[in-house]
Amino acid sequence: MAEEAGRNARQEPQVDVVVVGAGFAGLMLLHRLREAGFSARGFEQASDVGGTWYWNRYPGARCDIPTTDYTFGFDPELEREWTWSEKYATQPEILRYLQFVADRYDLRRDITFDTRVDRAEWDDAAQLWRVHTSGGETVTCRSYVMATGCLSVPKEPEIEGAGRFRGDVHLTSRWPHEGVDFTGKRVAVIGTGSSGIQSIPLIAQQAAELTVFQRTPNFSIPAHNGPAPAARVDQLRADRDAYRESARWSRMGVPGEATELKGVTTPEDVRRQRLESAWEAGELQVITSVFADQGTDPASNEIVAEFIREKIRAVVTDPETAEALSPRDHYFGTKRPCLDTGYFATFNLPHVRLVDLRKTPITTITESGIDTAGESFEVDAIVYATGFDAMTGALVGVDVAGREGVSLQEKWADGPSTYLGLMTAGFPNFFAITGPGSPSVLSNMAVSIEQHVDWVAGCLADLRARGMTTIEPTALAEEGWNRHVADCAAITLHPTANSWYMGANVPGKPRVFYPYIGGVDGYRAAADEVRERNYLGFRLTGPDGEQCTDGVVRRLQPDVAVVLEMMAQLGLPALESLPPAQLREFMDTLNADRPLGPEVGEVRDGVLPGPAGDLAYRLFRPASPGPHPVVLYFHGGGWVIGDHGSDEPLCRDLCARSDVVVVSVDYRHGPEARYPAAAEDAWAALRWVADHAIELGGIPDQLVVAGWSAGANLAAVVAQRAREEGGPALRGQLLLTPVTDSAMATDSFRENAEGYVLTAGVMQYFWDHYCDPAARTEPAASPLRGRLHDLPPAIVVTAEFDPLRDEGIAYAEALRAAGVPVEHVAARGHTHTSLTMVDVVLSGAPVRAEIGARLRALLPEPATV
Ligand code: N01
């Protein structure tokens, strides 16, 4: 009935779409909508088109993506008709370009200028938006799009006394159209982000005195402005379409070479050469990708940071000023780096002075100047270059009310929540162009805007073609995307900085990472996939019903996905197609170049007696003074491959994190020595290690058994046997993605049979080489079938995308049912192998930290000396 009533109440809106904003995004969207046959109206607060480039008219304002790339690429004709004059165009030229675009496609006729959208509300009965403007008009539309920009709402200066100043006050982001003449004036600039760094050298050229009030020094490199870079121009001329396409599938929306070189391991001369050439290139996308790991590894980042500081010291003559201008409180790239023209040299001028607010903070602004903790400054003009309420300011700045009157501001009180940065549940047919959760500010805006506009226009056309009226993300899809956005940021250095990317510049703003750092390419692939999979994670409704393919578009940890992609590209043979000897050789080659894991106090090899000959072991000792608890560790490899050194990174990690001696023992492998040879060897190793704990530097009654995969199977098996035989006494068992049963019939086997390195086929191969079918159900092969009472406390680790996940969970549950204390660590987004990839899969680190802490909790506190 209700549905019927709703259907009857559905109304025809005045226009199909309302678009707010007439910058790059709004203009292109209006053009695309018209092309696709939709009616649309645009509203713009300013008196003309231009967006950012309308407002930010401060001296020195330029783009900082080369104009070869900071330009619309959707229409080759448009590109033929416009030629940029410089590598980085000035604000007036970019504004002229946008005016040219508006004229060329006759877009102004759809835009109402000098008009703000104050409120927009979704009418669920009528299935449309009502949009109220500052001009008193109410327009109804089926879809409401905010193309309001990411950096469009200036931040309040929040400085005591700001209203008292009687001189001239200017905001870089609201600069007077007629310009400002500072000749003969004493000028203060507050803020040294991109706007400050671009404007300071030019203000210094006019002002009689210039005082720069700096709270945080910023990394900046010279723009080397001039003609557009020949290499880019040549590439573009040679094949425009290919160039644009490569931008669309690049990381930052600008074509460029990705490197695999890591900062710390690159030889000094190569490092230097790469850094110098990035300096010479004067392009943000080059200096931010000198090393593959500079965004994730503090040591690699420091190499780039120190190189830039060295350049600052070389330019700025006063060492104290040079040091004050040298950023040391954030990693390079975690606050937006800048491009400048003569910024640092400006501080050599006699009439320019830097005030370091970290040493002497502003206490108040007075009627005639600025007081700091150390001094009073009399000035004629204050320029605020203090930034924006970024990413969400413009979106929540309009009173947008979705279903049941819930406002966007309420929904996003703890931080933005979006699906693909485009839409948010509870707000049907509401789109944000380059919204939070999309690459936006971390990319070339022109490319990201085109991608969003194309997606939205394509989506509206699809709805029309299917006779659907509304589209809205599901809660599941949105939560999944938010998690993915956070996962991508978590493996970088970004969350450590007080940046506007983190909302840290606006008091009280939720501290999350606002943009999507998975790359323009990765983002485009996800957005395309959503559409191709029948609008995965969206609910579509129309007069004749609804459609919903619910789901999450990216569930793997981002770095796990990268490793899997790289492996897929290598075209490796199916592992189960290789005879064991060849498989072992192959794995050795794969392991040869991997990082070894963290430093530990000592690594040494030894042998211990096994039932059929010596067994090699490798011992990892922490750097702290011993003795330590001992973890007897069994390596993974399906009882067929691997040895006492094959899990070295994981063993080092365990040793360093938990402050334990790890003894990794080899055992005999199938098919040469089949079941129960490995289990017998493991048992012999346990007894020997228990008997020799003191010699090994261990504490005798602090012994834990551990293992990964088949090695975890052996650990579980020897724990059961130790109970049967009355010792050795164990403090715990650490089972990492264990094999606990031979049935291979769980849901996780079906779901993850293919594609995650350990496949169902590989597991079958391992069982076949290890154990006769008749013996596989014995508890010494399938510990899940054993008696589980009176076993030592267990830590069971399972990975989401692992065929063995469910048998690990089953073991944890069965242990618990038998009264054994169990800690279950479920590694979200991980595969069977990814947790062992220390220093490669960075998202594994927090999981291993949790495992390390839980292991430590099984052991007595280390004795303090
Ligand atoms: O703003 P910002 P912006 N007391 O937030 C300081 C893009 N953009 O307008 O870092 C004293 O970066 C603040 O100090 P701190 C670009 O993406 C592009 O410069 O918070 N100081 C900081 O130094 C850029 O990142 C171009 O400690 C105060 C400065 O003000 C983004 O826009 C050009 C303060 C603000 O820097 C924003 O840049 C311009 C206070 N109360 C901008 N409050 C291009 O080239 C703030 N600060 C395309």
Textual characterization of the structure:
The chain has 865 residues and is an alpha/beta fold. Among the domains are: 15-152 and 390-467 and 519-533, FAD/NAD(P)-binding domain; 580-858, Rossmann fold (3-Layer(aba) Sandwich). The strands form six sheets. Strands 1, 2, 3, 4, 5, 6, 17 and 18 form an eight-stranded mixed sheet that branches. It binds 3-acetylpyridine adenine dinucleotide (N01). 3-acetylpyridine adenine dinucleotide (N01) binds next to helix 6.
Summarize the structure.
Residues 631-833 form the Alpha/beta hydrolase fold-3 domain. Among the domains are: 15-152 and 390-467 and 519-533, FAD/NAD(P)-binding domain (3-Layer(bba) Sandwich); 580-858, Rossmann fold. Helices cover 34% and strands 18% of the residues.
Task: List strands and helices in order, with pairings.
Layout: H1 2-9, E1 15-20, H2 24-35, E2 40-43, H3 52-55, H4 76-81, H5 91-104, E3 111-112, E4 117-123, E5 128-133, E6 138-146, E7 168-171, E8 186-190, H6 194-206, E9 209-214, E10 220-222, H7 230-238, H8 240-248, H9 268-281, H10 284-287, H11 298-315, H12 319-324, E11 338-340, H13 343-346, E12 352-356, E13 362-365, E14 369-372, E15 376-378, E16 381-384, H14 393-397, E17 399-401, H15 408-411, E18 430-432, H16 445-466, E19 470-473, H17 475-490, H18 520-532, E20 538-542, E21 545-548, H19 558-570, H20 580-592, E22 602-610, E23 613-621, E24 628-634, H21 648-658, E25 661-665, H22 677-691, E26 698-708, H23 710-724, E27 732-736, H24 747-751, H25 760-770, E28 794-801, H26 805-817, E29 822-831, H27 844-858
Parallel strand pairs: 1-2, 1-6, 2-3, 4-17, 6-18, 7-16, 8-9, 8-16, 9-12, 10-11, 24-25, 24-26, 26-27, 27-28, 28-29
Antiparallel strand pairs: 4-5, 5-6, 13-14, 14-15, 19-20, 20-21, 22-23, 23-25
Bound molecules: 3-acetylpyridine adenine dinucleotide.
Residues 62-64, 151, 157-159, 190-196, 198, 215-216, 336, 357, 385-388, 441, 500, 505 line the site of 3-acetylpyridine adenine dinucleotide.
